[in-house]
Design a protein that fits this description.
alpha/beta, 3-stranded parallel sheet, 14 strands, 36% helix, 13% strand
Length: 399
Amino acid sequence: MFTEFFYTLKNKGLDVSTTEWLTLHDALDKGLANSSLTDFYYLGRMILVKRESDYDKYDLAFMEYFKGVISDNEVPQHILDFLDKEDMEFDAQNKELYSYNVKRDSNEVKRLFRERIGEQHTEHNGGNYWIGTSGGSAFGHHGRNPGGIRVGGESGMRTAFQVMGERRYADFRHDKTLDIRQFQVAFRRLRQYSSKLDVPRTELDINKTVDSTCENGGFLQLEFDKPRKNTVKLLLLFDSGGTMMPFAELSNNLFQAVHKANHFKDVKTYYFHNCIYGKVYKTPECAMGDWYDLDYIFRHTDKDYKVIIVGDAQMAPEELFDLNGNYSGPNDGYSGYEWNQLLKSKYKKIVWLNPRRHVGMSDSVGWMESEEALAQLYNMYPLTVDGLKEAITKLMETK
């Protein structure tokens, strides 16, 4: 039963074991799904999904396999069309809307919702009964009923039993490209480099406080530790322009996350185009002459700087290996690859974040050669949640 669903789950990347699949069947035999597609959804997710980060994969597999199956929660297109309204405002002054507020449990609300779907054939707004907008009905959006089911629109009082048709777990995926919040969370791990000051214990230690409170029979026992001093020095090198244009916003998110953080003693940011040569630029425009010699960077940063290179490594082989491969400026006697070797030998901790790496291939065979050569030189990671975590872990290694 549902054999194709099993393979759909596997195809979406879910690690579903035979034991878990048989457990789901056992639960179905015991009637735990209550002959409801909704209950089956939650039952399957509880048994088959091990991590919150895989919820979105499960949702995609579920939608793909059960497409066309009428669900208790399915909203017909004509109802959605009735509700397709923009720039609405909530009517916060109309107190008469609250007269329709009758407390019901979730099953009762769902039953009434299905009844309205079967009965409603015209658009309704401002009322208390139908699926609509700006009223006191428990169904629709931009109304003032503190319960019910929101369909479409933006959440008002945020007390709906469920929100229809949303992929609410897409941001939990570990293979998702990063946003600024996820960057900030990942960089907090670098605080482990911080040194403890030889000063009084004035910083609250949450973990020790929890342990001591438990040992103290639940009575609060505050524990303090010495504050940390930020000792992490970071050098950021961004590839700018050309094939990195699709990733400009992503690179900017990383830049903003680093400069908003307070985990670093020093942060220096420079730019390059395609490949790192004898000069790095002061701004993302990479304007001719607006640069620093790489030797200057070497002299003004010590070997303890942690280096993060952000780029897609997409370049023709001659740009990387030829002495004259740098069309935007002089190579200063070395090929791009030799300059990268010098950079690698200068700093003890250096990683490369590649926004194309998670795709699994470059845009052309020629560029693949350059990318793989740099991947052999540096520890190269995809610019995803997991990739950044691995890169930070590499930077934190003590050896």
